[in-house]
Design brief:
By secondary structure, this protein is α/β, with parallel strands linked by helices. 43% of the residues lie in helices and 24% in strands. It has 26 helices and 28 strands. It has an 8-stranded mixed beta barrel with strand order 19-20-22-23-24-25-26-27, surrounded by 5 helices. Strands 1, 2, 3, 4, 5 and 6 form a 6-stranded mixed sheet that branches.
Length: 704
C-alpha cells in the first residue's frame, strides 16, 4: 500500500514552525502534513521517514535509542549508515524492486549501531506518494527482534548439530513420537536395513515398518500379522532393551531401544558383523590349535568333562594321550617346517580314525583322543593299536619320506579318575612310562606310575633348591696306573644328600636334571669345583669330569671350561663323554672336541662297548682315553666273551694311541688279568671307593 501524503495533511491541524534555512536538511515539514502521521506511528517501534532519494527526514526516539546515534547524526543520512555485512547490495536492490512493484516490502534486517554492535529488526517499508501517485518518500517501521533471532539462530545451530550427530552416528537411528510415527530416520538406518525411499513418504508409522520387514522375511518364517502384533506389543511397553539378531543377508545387528520422556522412543541399529567375526575368530583361536585346526587342550578338557557328566552307569570312557616318537629328532635334523607338516599330517590321520571323539592337539607333539563308552578293555586296547598303526606309516613330506611313529598312554574313567583333569594327568603319566620302556607301543595307567612321577617331581624341586644353596658335593675316585699301582688321576663324582631321602644316586637325579633344564648349572658347578680341588694336587695328577650330552652340545661349554681351569693347566683336565653325545649331533660334537683339544684338554669316551660302539667314532674323533665299561670287568674269570671283547678294546686303544682305562675293578684277580692284558689304567673299589676331597688329598700324598 502507498500512503497519500496530501490526505494526511488535510486531516491534521497546521502547526506554525520557524522557517528552516535552505542549507539544512529538509526535515519533516508540516506544510505537507506528515507530522501528525509521524505522531500516530511513534509508538509502533523504530520509525523513520525518508524522502524519495532515501535521505532520512525523521526518526523517532526509539530509532535513536536502538541505533545509538544522535538525531542530528541521522537526519540527512541514508539508512546505509546502519548497514551491516549481513546483507549484500543485491538484497537491497531486490527490496527496492519490490517496493516499486508493490509499494510495501518486509524482511528481517540486521543493522549495525554506532558502537559497532548488531541488532535485528523486523522491517516494513512503505512508499509515500502524492495525489497524482508521485513518489514523495518512504516510511519505515522496525520492530526489535534481536532476542528472537538469537534464539532462532541458536535453535538452527542446535538443529544442524543434532543433524550432524545423527548422520555421523556409527549406526542407524530412528525416532518415534508417542503415537509411533517416525520423526527421524537417518541415512545409515535406511541403508543398513535396505529401506526404500517410498517407505518414508507421508507419516510412516512403526507398524508400517514392522509389516514391511515381516513381509520380506526379516523376522523369519511366520504369519505376518502375528509377527507385527508381537513386536507392537513389546514396543508399547516403552522399556529400554538391547538384543542382537542376524538379518537374512547375514548381517549381525545390535538393536537398542530407549524410551523418551514425552512418550516416544529412539532405536539404534549397529552393524556388529565385524565384531561377531572377530569374536568367532578369537573364540576359535582360544579353543583350537592354529597349526592343525584341531581343538586344543582347553576345549579337549571341556569335552572330556561333558563326556564324563553324561557317562551312564557301568559305562567307561578312555582317554588316549598320543605322542610322536621321533618328533624332536625330526625337528632338529629336518627343520621346523618339516616338523609342522608332520604334525598336520598326523592330526589328519588321527581325526580320520573311526570311533574317536574330540581328537585334539594338546601341545608340542602330543595329541589327545576320547573314546566314549567302549564295550571292554579289549576295545580300548584295539583303539590304542589303531592309533599306533595310523602313525607307523611313514609320512611323505615333499621329497622326504619321514618315519615318526607314535606311543600311547591310556587312562580309563571312572577307575583311574573321575574328573577330566586327573584323567588327563594319568594318561600323560602312562604315555611317559610307555616311552621310557619302549616306543611304538601303548600302555595303561597304573597307580604306581603316579607315585614314581611324584617322586621325580620331588627330586626336581629339590634340585632347584640344591642349586640355589650349593647343596652338592664332590667325591673323588682314584685312577691308578696298572703297572705301578700309583694314583695318576681321580674321577670327580657328584653327590647330593636330599633333606628327606638322604643320598640320591647320580644315576637317578642327573636324567631328571637334564629334563628339568638344570644340568648346565650343575655341570658348570662340577667343573669349577673339580678344577679348584685339582689345583691343590701335585701337577702330575689329573682330574676327570663327566660331561652330559646336554651340557656338551650347549653353547657355553668351552667358555665354562676355560673359566673353570684358570688355576691349573688344561692338560690336567680329562672330559669324559658317552657315545650319546656323538649320536645326537656329530658335526657339533666334532667342532667342540677340536676346540677343546686345541686348548689342551683331554677327552675320554666313557662306557665304551655298551652303546653302538661304532669304530668310526674312534677314527673320526680325537679321543685320548677309552674307558672300558665295568660289565667287561666283573666276573672276569667266567666270561670268555667279555674277556675277548675287553682284550680287543685294550688292543684297539693301544693301536690308536689311546689310553685304556678299566672301570669297576674290585678284586685282585681282575686287576691281575687286566695287567696281563696290557690295560694301562684302572679304577674301582679295589683301590678306593669315591671319597671326599680331604681324604683323596691324603691318599694322593701317600701314593706319591
Amino acid at each position: 500500500m502507498a500512503y497519500n501524503v496530501e490526505g494526511l495533511a488535510k486531516s491534521s491541524k497546521p502547526v506554525k514552525r520557524p522557517r528552516q534555512k535552505a542549507s539544512k536538511p529538509p526535515y519533516l515539514s508540516t506544510s505537507w502534513g506528515a507530522a501528525a502521521f509521524a505522531a500516530a506511528v511513534e509508538h509502533l517501534g523504530m520509525v523513520s521517514i525518508t524522502d524519495a532519494s532515501g535521505r532520512i527526514l525523521h526518526v523517532n526516539d526509539e530509532f535513536v535509542r536502538q541505533s545509538k546515534y544522535d538525531r542530528d547524526e541521522l537526519i540527512g543520512q541514508t539508512h546505509a549508515i546502519l548497514k551491516s555485512p549481513q546483507h549484500t547490495s543485491e538484497f537491497w536492490a531486490d527490496a527496492f524492486m519490490v517496493l516499486a512493484e508493490r509499494d510495501v516490502w518486509r524482511s528481517p534486517v540486521m543493522n549495525r549501531a554506532k558502537d559497532g554492535s548488531f541488532y535485528w529488526v523486523d522491517t516494513i517499508i512503505s512508499t509515500m506518494r502524492g495525489p497524482k501517485g508521485a513518489l514523495k518518500g518512504y516510511l519505515s517501521i522496525q520492530i526489535d527482534i534481536t532476542t528472537a533471532v538469537g534464539r532462532h539462530v541458536e535453535l538452527q545451530e542446535r538443529t544442524e548439530l543434532l543433524q550432524a550427530v545423527v548422520e555421523t552416528f556409527p549406526g542407524g537411528l530412528t525416532a518415534f513420537d508417542k503415537n509411533n510415527r517416525i520423526i527421524l530416520c537417518n541415512k545409515k538406518q535406511r541403508r543398513l536395513l535396505e529401506y526404500p525411499d517410498e517407505l518414508f513418504e507421508g507419516n510412516t508409522t512403526l507398524e508400517q515398518l514392522y509389516r514391511f520387514n515381516a513381509e520380506r522375511g526379516e523376522y523369519g518364517p511366520g504369519n505376518v500379522d502375528d509377527l507385527v502384533r508381537e513386536r507392537l506389543g513389546r514396543a508399547s511397553k516403552r522399556v529400554a532393551h538391547s538384543f542382537e539378531r542376524q538379518r537374512p543377508n547375514g548381517t549381525y545387528l545390535e538393536i537398542r531401544g530407549t524410551p523418551l520422556a514425552h512418550g516416544g522412543f529412539v532405536t539404534a541399529h549397529i552393524d556388529i558383523s565385524d565384531r561377531k567375526r572377530d569374536q568367532e575368530m578369537i573364540g576359535r583361536l582360544a579353543n583350537h590349535d592354529a597349526l592343525t585346526g584341531l581343538p586344543n587342550r582347553t576345549l579337549f578338557l571341556k569335552r572330556a568333562r561333558s563326556a564324563l557328566e553324561h557317562l551312564g552307569h557301568g559305562e567307561m570312557l578312555a582317554l588316549h594321550c598320543v605322542g610322536l616318537d621321533r618328533f624332536k629328532i625330526i625337528n632338529d635334523t629336518l627343520g621346523h617346517p618339516t616338523g609342522d607338516a608332520i604334525l598336520k599330517a598326523a592330526a589328519q590321520r588321527l581325526a580320520n580314525l573311526p570311533g574317536t571323539h574330540a581328537v585334539s592337539r594338546l601341545g608340542g607333539d602330543e595329541f589327545g583322543i576320547i573314546q566314549v563308552a567302549p564295550n571292554s578293555i579289549e576295545d580300548v586296547a584295539a583303539m590304542g593299536k589303531a592309533i599306533i598303526g595310523a602313525l607307523a606309516e611313514p609320512f611323505e613330506i615333499g621329497s622326504e619320506t619321514v618315519a615318526a611313529g607314535g606311543s600311547v598312554g591310556i587312562a580309563i574313567a571312572p577307575g583311574d579318575a573321575s574328573n577330566a583333569e586327573q584323567l588327563m594327568v594319568n594318561a600323560d603319566t602312562a604315555l611317559y612310562r610307555t616311552k621310557s620302556i619302549g616306543r611304538g607301543s601303548f600302555g595303561f595307567f597304573e597307580q604306581t606310575m603316579h607315585e614314581r612321577l611324584q617322586a621325580r617331581h620331588t627330586i626336581a624341586m629339590g634340585l632347584r633348591e640344591a642349586i640355589a644353596n650349593s647343596k652338592f658335593e664332590l667325591h673323588y675316585q682314584p685312577i691308578v696306573n696298572v703297572n705301578s699301582r700309583r694314583i695318576v688321576g681321580c674321577e670327580a663324582l657328584i653327590r647330593w644328600y636330599h633333606p628327606k631321602r638322604g643320598l640320591v644316586p647320580a644315576s637317578e637325579f642327573i636324567p631328571i636334571a637334564e629334563e628339568a633344564g638344570y644340568i648346565e648349572q650343575i655341570g658348570e658347578w662340577v667343573l669349577k669345583s673339580a678344577c679348584a680341588e685339582a689345583s691343590r694336587w701335585p701337577d702330575n695328577i689329573w682330574v676327570a669330569v663327566n660331561v652330559s650330552a646336554v651340557q656338551f652340545l650347549g653353547p657355553n661349554l668351552v667358555q665354562q671350561i676355560v673359566d673353570a681351569s684358570r688355576s691349573m693347566s688344561l692338560s690336567r683336565l680329562v672330559l669324559e663323554i658317552t657315545e650319546s653325545v656323538l649320536i645326537k649331533d656329530r658335526d657339533l660334537a666334532t667342532t667342540t672336541l677340536n676346540q677343546l683339544k686345541k686348548l689342551g684338554a683331554r677327552i675320554a669316551i666313557d662306557d665304551f662297548g655298551t652303546g653302538f660302539s661304532s669304530l668310526s667314532y674312534l677314527q673320526s674323533f680325537p679321543f685320548d682315553k677309552i674307558k672300558i665299561d665295568r660289565s667287561f670287568v666283573s666276573d672276569i674269570s667266567n666270561q670268555k666273551r667279555s674277556a675277548t671283547l675287553r682284550r680287543s678294546i685294550i688292543q684297539l686303544g693301544y693301536n690308536l694311541g689311546m689310553t685304556s682305562v678299566a672301570e669297576g675293578v674290585e678284586t685282585e684277580a681282575q686287576y691281575a688279568k687286566l695287567r696281563s692284558e696290557g690295560c694301562v689304567e684302572a679304577q674301582g673299589f679295589l683301590f678306593s671307593r669315591p671319597i671326599p676331597a680331604a681324604a683323596v688329598r691324603a691318599l694322593i700324598a701317600k701314593s706319591q
